[in-house]
Amino acid sequence: MVNRLFLIVVLIFGNYVYAQQNDCKVTIADISGSYSGGCKNGLAHGKGVAQGIDRYEGQFMKGKPDGKGIYKWANGTSFEGQWKNGMREGMGKMVYSDSVVTGYWRDDKYQIGKLIPPFRITNSMSVSRSTLTKSISFGNGVRIKIMQGGNDNTSIEDFSLAYDSGGEYRMGNTYGIQNAFIPLDVKIMYRTWNQLHTTQYDVIFEFTIYDPGTWDVVLTN
Q: Fewer CB atoms < 10 Å away: N or C end of the chain?
């Protein structure tokens, strides 16, 4: 009897979730066939996947691609990068059958001639010096080392990484993110002692990588 009731609850809940997914609308016609993912007020919102003539996987807001995502057209062309209100907006990469264009888009149009920085530091708190250097390693990601007084900083507490793609790892005193998509947004947070070990303070360092590859990030406190 208990098992039967459990099965009924599961079926009802499953149908409810399924109905939610079907009732959650994507307002771009070419990707409005089916949708699975976050939903708010009946519209795709948050991370999700929409499939129609074309396919989009990434962030949504109010039923449209908004944030970071990958759009694949039926002819095989794809765009990986930033979206706003259903249009390409910001850094991204267009992949055609015979070429790749990396650059900056505004109002869904490629901005010819706009200089693209390899990276951009968006926030730095309690960091006395920082360096970001592209290495010869393969793959997209970052390797992070934290220094103090010319040596590895061994007094780090509550270390955390926030990032929008890839997987986190640690090797000795090096923190890293691997198998990431570019552009890559990273936020580093931790607490550390000063060199005399008399005071603790919070450290925040945020940056975006625009140039594909593996980047070595060194922070000095």
A: N
Question: Phi and psi of 19, rounded to 5°?
Answer: -65, -40
**200 CB contacts (<8 Å, ≥6 apart)?**
157, 191, 192, 193, 194
- In 3D space, the residue among 30, 29, 64 whose CA is nearest the CA of residue 44 turns out to be 64
CATH architecture of 2-110: Single Sheet (2.20)
If you search the block for the tokens 């990396």, which residue do you land on? 102
User: Would you kindly state where each structural domain of the chain is located, as residue ranges?
Assistant: 2-110, 119-220
The tens digit of pLDDT for each residue in 15-46 reads 333 334 458 999 999 999 999 999 999 999 99
Cα 29 to its chain centre, rounded Å, is 25
Query: Residue 182's CB: how many other CB atoms inside 10 A?
Result: 20
d(CA 132, CA 140): 14
Which residue type is seen at 221? N
